[in-house]
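Case study: Probable GTP-binding protein EngB.
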Amino acid sequence: MSSPDGTDEDAFPPQAIEAGRLLFAREFSFLRGVAKLDGLPPAAPCEVAFAGRSNVGKSSLLNALTGRKALARTSSTPGRTRELNFFTFGDVLCLVDMPGYGYAKAAKSEARRWQALIRDYLRGRPSLKRVFLLVDARHGLKDSDLEMMALMDEAAVSYQIVLTKADKVKPAELERICAAVADALKRRPAAHPGFHVTSSAKGTGIAELRAEIALLTER
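Here is what the predicted structure looks like once written out:
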């Protein structure tokens, strides 16, 4: 039986939830910001990245995952993240905060540079276990999200949808959005079939997302 977020209700037993909690309770450190591929750090045993449209709530979600208020800077200004920002959790996990796409309050030439950086990173990072693609639950998949999905399909990079801001959507509308996302994923070769529904403000889905990432560190 599947839950509304498209995952198996029994996919995350208590021990998996606890493993996720312990993983994100580790000491973390900011490793570096990368503006060019030649600045990438050495590959970690497990690397996961977070991508999404500008202002999708990526910084808030990363802060909720780690239980910190300042792991990633939150801002009402879209396009604030302009580099690949690497954070390490001991020698177990490297988390990557990717630049937002779809809108950026910057020159077009700089936006193109960010886009090229994202493409090159996705195509040339064998340690990357999964990209978590954040989608605003109020709007569902946009054209720019579909373009990002196509890029990851082409690069054969495993990715998984994470719906954000679910607390701002009425239940019936959220159910409709979830059904549309589930249908779209059926046609995507590199997409994980399950997805997460989250709210950084309410804490919804945070423990399950932590558990998902903890499982990736064991593979």
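For the exam, be able to explain this: Confidence is low (pLDDT under 50) at residues 1-5, 74-80.
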